[in-house]
Design brief:
The protein is mostly beta strands. About 0% of the residues lie in helices and about 45% in strands. Strands 3, 4, 5, 9, 10, 24, 29, 30, 31 and 34 form a 10-stranded antiparallel β-sheet that branches. Strands 6-23-33-25-26-27-28-32 form an 8-stranded antiparallel β-sheet, with no helix packed on it. A 5-stranded antiparallel β-sheet has the order 12-15-20-17-18, with no helix packed on it.
């Protein structure tokens, strides 16, 4: 369900194919709006069609390097190999770690105990994931084969936390030398107890772990400790590290650099006031996306993919395409939710999904990955038209509605059709 390029008859020239309505292809960066019977307006700048309120994000560019996207602009994300993932839409988040890229600073304590050796830090020792010589080297050592938990060597920091809340800690890390490939380094933060035992590779990896805060202060540690999962005989390790982050929630969001204070990245607000491309009597809304969360990891999780709401964004009318561990859709008319659809279990954690919803007079439709929604009629289907529909939002529920802590989505493509839906068409759109 992506926009495509075709050949204009008789010209041999490649042109964008466009349908009535709105088309957004974030992989190819091709966007258009076409009211019925009117020539399409096409652009490669989505800001021509949407208002965009966001903080600067740090995402991979087409070269696979982490770079700043710029404020109030789309964050086009890529794999490390440079393949496009679409735009990254995220909730607000705060990196509680100070000096997230400078482990030599006083914000990071260098701690030793028992027969452990004081950590040695070499600042700006290697090329970091952002392409700059900004990664630090950490050298750690305890006695070989030690099972004594009082033997440790680590760097540590204690950001403030709220007891009982879930926090996710993350950092980029790799072996500093070939001799360190396959060695283990330990990482933990808010939970104070168990460690993530990470096996070092020669390539940068972003490691993360989610823990429930045990108290009002985290104990973020990167180090070695006797008796905690080190292979027999390992006594020392050298690693390059960059981009430490601790944030509220169950997933690591895009990197938020810090220096002497915690830094907050605002949540994205992406909206278009719809015009004649919207038919309030007949509507199809379809999207292709992926979500970075493990299926079933958070029972309260809800992710809005796209929603069309009233001008005041208060909920008098709406049509929302969203997901939990199920593909879901909801319609509201005159303040009352009237129809609701859902499918079977979805696997997220980066898997690509395609969903579509549609409504017309006294009928609603839904499809996910080529199959029909199971419809749960919580009321009567909306009587067309939904007269208050006015604003298209991407990745956002209604104003004031809860956006759960795990909100993070790659939106790959979206289409709005001002046309009468039928089930076969919606199924075909989501294949």
């Amino acid at each position: 369900m992506k926009l495509s390029l075709g050949v204009s008859p008789g010209s041999g020239r490649r042109v964008w194919r466009s349908h009535d309505g709105l088309g957004l292809d974030f992989l190819k960066r091709q966007f258009f709006v076409k009211p019925t019977g009117v020539t399409a307006t096409r652009t490669r700048n989505v800001l021509d069609l949407f208002t965009w309120s966001s903080s600067t994000k740090y995402v991979r560019n087409a070269a696979g390097v982490i770079a700043a996207s710029g404020a109030n602009a789309p964050a086009f994300d890529h794999t490390i190999a440079g393949s496009p993932l679409g735009i990254l839409i995220e909730k607000a988040s705060t990196n509680l770690v100070l000096q997230s890229g400078d482990f030599s600073s006083a914000s990071w304590a260098k701690v030793t105990g028992g027969a452990g050796v004081l950590p040695a830090i070499t600042h700006n020792d290697a090329v970091a994931p952002d392409g700059a010589v900004a990664a630090d080297r950490i050298d750690l050592s305890i006695p070989a084969g030690s099972a004594n938990t009082t033997d440790f060597s680590r760097v540590a920091q204690g950001p403030a936390t709220a007891a009982g809340q879930a926090y996710t800690g993350s950092l980029w890390i790799k072996a500093a030398t070939l001799a360190d490939v396959g060695k283990v380094i330990l990482f933990r933060h808010a939970g104070w107890s168990s460690y993530l035992a990470h096996v070092l590779t020669a390539d940068w990896q972003r490691v993360s772990t989610t823990e429930t805060a045990a108290g009002s202060t985290a104990d973020m540690q990167i180090g070695l400790r006797g008796g905690f999962g080190l292979p027999g005989g390992q006594s020392a390790v050298s690693a390059h590290v960059w981009g430490a982050q601790l944030e509220l929630g169950s997933i690591p969001t895009s990197y938020i650099p810090t220096t002497t204070a915690a830094v907050t990245r605002n949540g994205d607000v992406i909206r278009r006031v719809l015009g004649a491309e919207l038919d309030k009597s007949n509507l199809i809304l379809a999207a292709e996306f992926s979500i970075d969360r493990a299926s079933g990891s958070d029972g309260s999780f809800q992710q809005a993919i796209a929603s069309i709401v009233d001008a005041a964004i208060t909920g008098s009318d709406w049509a929302i395409l969203y997901t939990t561990t199920l593909a879901r859709a909801s319609f509201r008319k005159n303040g009352a939710t009237e129809n609701f659809g859902q499918s079977g279990t979805l696997t997220h954690n980066g898997a690509i999904s395609k969903q579509a919803i549609g409504f017309t007079n006294l009928a609603t439709f839904g499809a996910v990955n080529g199959t029909t929604f199971l419809i749960d009629d919580t009321g009567t289907a909306p009587s067309a038209p939904l007269t208050n529909l006015a604003t298209l939002q991407l990745g956002e529920f209604l104003t004031g509605a809860s956006n759960p802590a795990g909100r993070r989505i790659h939106l790959r493509a979206l289409s709005l059709y001002p046309q009468t839906p039928d089930q076969a068409r919606l199924n075909a759109l989501t294949v």
